[in-house]
Amino acid sequence: PKVTNPFDLVYQVAGNAVQSIAVFDGGVAIAYHQDYPTVAALLAATFPSSATSNYYATCLAEGSFRLDDAPVFALTADVIEGTERSCARIAQRILLAAGVSAADIDAASFDALHTAAPAEAGVFVDGEDDTFEVASRVLESVGAALTVTAEGDFKVVRPVAPSGTEVAELTIRDLLDGNGSFQLAAGPGDEGDGVPAWSVVLSYGKLWTAVQVGDLDRALSVERRALLTAGSDRKATAQDASVKTPHPKAVEITGDTLLVDQADALAEAQRRLALYSTRRDYLAFPVPDNGPEIDLGDVVRVTIPRFGWDAGKLFTVLGTRRDFTRRTITYDLWG
């Protein structure tokens, strides 16, 4: 926490209103007094008399708290903001707080992600970080990405295995009429150059304050001490060794998340393993700009007499790029 008034022991944890603040001295919880509507009222607060306990009071409306007595060890706080703390809802609030109009946010895509990935996450910004970068970092925790539509709206896209009924079929004729050639690259990404993954390891439960052993109260349990000094070393791992049989060079995918709980991180690791333990292809497919209406996240069928796609293969649309000179649209497809 930032010291805003060292004489009255007032600290601030956020530049906005928060739901709750739990304060710790050397990892040991400090007794809570009550909340006050303003910092001015917080300054005038009277704490309970106690010879053994330190107290703190909060001003949640202004993201601040005040101590009854100076801390002995490292002062830290657990802070909760917002009633809905999924990655989708956090990213939405970040955009709104940065001045983005609600009309310029594709609420339907954020609602869909909130429903599909309700796991609690958290991010702390202590500097002049870029809004888009912070929101993207949050969304990456559940494998989603922030993009801007042709209409200028912020939309969230999350790659999922393409399934169901396609909104359009792309054929060799579309490709020729688009006056271009498609580009095929293997997925899932740079780490394995298209080789399927047999293991996914994700971090979770990030601690935003680095706590050293000497900063902690000696009364802490071994478990609590280990937790507070773990930093970002907590990992959730999903593995399937059987993938190595058809793919001896199968890779391990690693990633950082802002998810809070181990169970949620494990579920996300398992989801990604199911997604990437099989071959995925990335396809850049140019078509005439007078073709069918295709949007981000839609599923299309690519039917061409190559790669065994004679009967068609389903792809998810992850991006679009317009060339107004050639009057084409190139769809970034994945599946």
Summarize the structure.
The protein has helices spanning about 40-45, 85-95, 105-115, 130-140, 170-175, 220-230, 260-275; strands at about 1-5, 10, 20-25, 30, 30-35, 55-60, 65, 75-80, 145-150, 155, 170, 185, 195-205, 235-240, 250-255, 280-290, 300-305, 315-325, 330-335. The chain is α+β, with helices and mostly antiparallel strands and about 325 residues long.
Task: Characterize the structure shown.
This protein has 335 residues and is α+β, with helices and mostly antiparallel strands. It contains 7 helices and 19 strands. It has helices spanning 39-43, 87-97, 107-116, 131-140, 172-177, 222-228, 262-276; strands at 2-5, 10-12, 20-25, 28-29, 31-35, 55-59, 64-67, 75-80, 145-148, 154-157, 168-171, 183-186, 197-203, 235-239, 251-255, 281-288, 299-303, 313-323, 328-334. The strands form 5 sheets. The protein has a 6-stranded mixed sheet with strand order 11-17-18-19-16-12. Helix 2 runs antiparallel to helix 3 (107-116) and helix 2 (87-97) runs antiparallel to helix 4. The model has no long low-confidence stretch (mean pLDDT 89).
